[in-house]
Amino acid sequence: MKYKAIIFDLDGVICSTDEYHYLAWKAMADSIGVPFDRKINNRLRGVSRMASLEIILERYTGPALSDAEKGTLAEQKNELYKEYLKNMSPADLPDEVNATLQELNDMGLKLAIGSSSKNTPFILQQIGLGGYFDAVSDGNNITRSKPDPEVFLKAAQMLNLPPRDCLVVEDAVSGAQAGAAGGFDVACVGDAARAGAGNYNMKAFSELLQIVK
Ligand code: BG6
Ligand code: MG
């Protein structure tokens, strides 16, 4: 086997919470009259909440915002985002992802999460994967978000494995860069795969079953 473990990004890889991020940021941007679309949204993938806000505010032309006001805007977005998360259930874990995770587990691979999101524990619980992974490294245990490799290096540490033994799976260009910077091979789906950002650029999640062999 080429790898001993797989470290998955969460939003946009395991489940489609990336769409809820978009909808919640869109509502926040509309409330202060900032143009925001899916192209800008792609730049927010993998990026921390406050860094995402700064990217959205690049197009803001209103009166200067204090740090406290920026904190309130980020909080406003997160509250709406959590409303979407409350409606999630195990039905939001795609069948293909579920089946592939089970097969990878049966093949003896360790499975971990490496996500910038502070909402990771809640999302995993909602989709029925609370306690499922061998390690969870997320926005609550890092100081630098992707493209910094910290979140993946911490996951590898938790697994007691060097980066070369772990494959990172990402939908974000920033996440693919983070993986490469940490010395990991990276398999991409979605936006990052279309950008050709990974060592492997997949059309379907289940392609992982061939890649790891
Ligand atoms: C990442 C998302 O997984 O988490 C980013 O791709 C998001 O878009 C980041 O900004 C932080 O998420 P949260 O849930 O802590 O606001
Ligand atoms: Mg993602």
Describe this entry's structure for a reader.
This protein has a six-stranded parallel β-sheet. The chain has helices at residues 17-31, 38-42, 49-56, 67-86, 95-106, 120-126, 150-159, 173-181, 190-194, 208-211; strands at 5-8, 110-114, 135-137, 166-170, 185-188, 200-201. The protein has ten helices and six strands, in the order βαααααβαβαβαβαβα. The protein has two domains: 5-15 and 89-212, 3-Layer(aba) Sandwich (Rossmann fold), CATH 3.40.50.1000; 18-85, DNA polymerase, domain 1, CATH 1.10.150.240. 45% of the residues lie in helices and 11% in strands. By secondary structure, it is α/β, with parallel strands linked by helices. The longest helix has 20 residues, at 67-86.
Task: Describe the protein's topology.
Elements (H helix, E strand, L loop, with lengths): L4 E4 L8 H15 L6 H5 L6 H8 L10 H20 L8 H12 L3 E5 L5 H7 L8 E3 L12 H10 L6 E5 L2 H9 L3 E4 L1 H5 L5 E2 L6 H4 L2
Parallel strand pairs: 1-2, 1-4, 2-3, 4-5, 5-6
The structure holds 6-O-phosphono-beta-D-glucopyranose and magnesium ion.
